[in-house]
Design brief:
Helices cover about 70% and strands about 0% of the residues. The protein has about 200 residues and is an all-alpha fold. Helix 8 packs parallel to helix 10. The longest helix has 17 residues, at about 5-20. The chain is globular.
């Protein structure tokens, strides 16, 4: 796809940085992010692990590793990563939703709902609405309505509706929403690349 060359160039850049600065944890995080965007899930985790080994203080900030864990189907580790992340970023809906998604894969949606951690002050209206959906306090139509305000909101609405349906094991609706998020609502955002990765990993 059109973005692959750019990502390959970024990968080459971070390879060169790491060859010169092998003790630079940030370089491993950045390379791990590029590897994830290229759907190189396992090696992305290896880079995030290396960053953590170089600086243990990074552990609660490695949300990117949590996402990679999800696509590696290492759901228990993913849930743990997001729970740790919430100790330093307690108002981010995405952290608790991804924890929910990992738990749903491990124990089912009912258990995931019971363990949904409270988040009240995310500044993004669409993410507050997404949280309410996962908590069982609003509808799909509510999310689509709140998400209708612009391209970024549309993207996030469709991505998290697709993930919601994946947790519910309703594959066709999951596919429909995530493919729309990836193909129709492009944003310059790590999560847009995640939607592309999701399509690739699922063979959509």
């Amino acid at each position: 796809m059109w973005f692959s060359n750019s990502l390959e160039n970024q990968l080459q850049h971070w390879n060169e940085v790491i060859s010169k600065q092998p003790q630079n944890p940030n370089a491993y995080i950045r390379r791990g992010m590029v590897k994830f965007q290229l759907a190189e899930i396992t090696t992305s985790i290896q880079d995030f692990d290396t960053a953590e080994q170089l600086d243990r203080r990074l552990t609660p900030y490695l949300w990117q590793r949590g996402l990679s864990y999800y696509y590696a189907e290492r759901f228990a580790e993913g849930a743990q990563q997001f729970e740790i992340d919430l100790t330093v970023n307690s108002q981010d809906v995405e952290e608790t939703v991804w924890r929910y998604l990992c738990i749903a894969q491990l124990k089912g949606v009912s258990e995931a709902k019971k363990s949904l951690l409270p988040v009240k002050n995310d500044p993004r209206e669409i993410m507050r609405c997404v949280y309410d959906l996962y908590a069982g306090n609003c509808t799909i139509d509510d999310v689509l309505q709140v998400g209708s305000g612009g391209n970024r909101s549309q993207f996030y609405a469709h991505l998290y509706l697709g993930l919601y349906y994946e947790a519910e094991n309703i594959v066709e609706l999951a596919k429909d929403y995530i493919v729309k998020a990836a193909d129709k609502y492009q944003v310059e955002d790590y999560m847009w690349y995640l939607a592309q990765v999701h399509k690739k990993v699922r063979g959509w």
